[in-house]
Structure formats: C-alpha cells, structure tokens
Amino acid sequence: MPVLMIAEVPNLAEETYAGMIGQMTPLFRAAKGFISHSGGPSPSGGWRIVEAWESEEDSENFFNEKVRPNVAPDVTPVRTYYPLHTAISK
Fold first, then answer.
1. Assuming Cys at both sites, which of 19, 46, 68, 87 could form a disulfide with 2, CB separation 3.0 to 4.6 Å?
2. pLDDT at position 89 over 90
3. Diameter of the chain measured on Cα atoms
4. Is the four-CA dihedral 51, 78, 1, 62 of positive or negative sign?
5. Residues 52, 89: contact at Cβ < 8 Å?
6. What values do phi and psi take at 38, rounded to 5?
7. Residue pLDDT, tens place only, 19-75
8. Domain extents for the chain?
9. Which 3 state secondary structure label does DSSP give 42?
10. In angstroms, rounded to a whole number, what is the distance separating the alpha carbons of residues 22 and 57?
11. Would you say 3 and 81 are in contact if contact means Cβ atoms under 8 Å apart?
C-alpha cells in the first residue's frame, strides 16, 4: 500500500539540506518503491520533508541505508506515515 511520509526536522538548516539533495536525488530515483520527494521550510522552524513511497518498509530501508549514515547525529527527523489510497506521479 502506498504511504505518505512527513518528516519534521527542527534542527536541519536549508544549507545542509541543499548540500545533500543533489547527491541524494539519483539515489532516490534508483530506490525500490520511491515515488516522490519534496522538501521545504517548516512553519515551526527547521525543514519539512514529504515523500510518497510504495510501502513504509521501502521508505524505512532507504532512510536507514542511505539517509541516516549521511546526516549529523543531532539531526533527528520525526517521521510520520499515512496510508494513501492512490499515488500518481508524472
């Protein structure tokens, strides 16, 4: 079942995100179950990440294998999953 993952990352700066996303984009595109990724400033401060995946397991595997090893230990996203009925991308 497709899922929407929303991560609030209060201690992630735009500069850090911008430095990572270029390197991460090809990894996202090659990842099993990846549908889409968006990121922008969070109204509460820090950064908000919104992704769609074919399953929560695919998202968790990608995060643990590709993202977590590349972020500072003090960057701790609060990740929440929501089931989707449909996920359509271009």
1. 87
2. no
3. 35
4. positive
5. yes
6. -140, 145
7. 999 999 999 999 999 999 999 999 999 999 999 999 999 999 999 999 999 888 888
8. 3-83
9. coil
10. 24
11. yes
Contact between 81 and 51 under an 8 Å Cβ cutoff? The reply is no
List C-alpha distances in Å: 41 to 4, 36, 76.
18, 17, 16
- Tokens 């090659």 found at: 30
Calpha distance 1→53 (Å, rounded): 9
Number of residues written out for the chain: 90
Which CATH number is associated with domain 3-83? 3.30.70.100
Question: Given phi > 0 = left and psi -120 to 50 = alpha, else beta, which region is 58?
Answer: alpha
In sequence order, what are the beta bridge partners of 82?
4
SS3 88: coil
Residue 34's beta-bridge partner residues? 53
In the prediction, which pLDDT does 26 show?
96
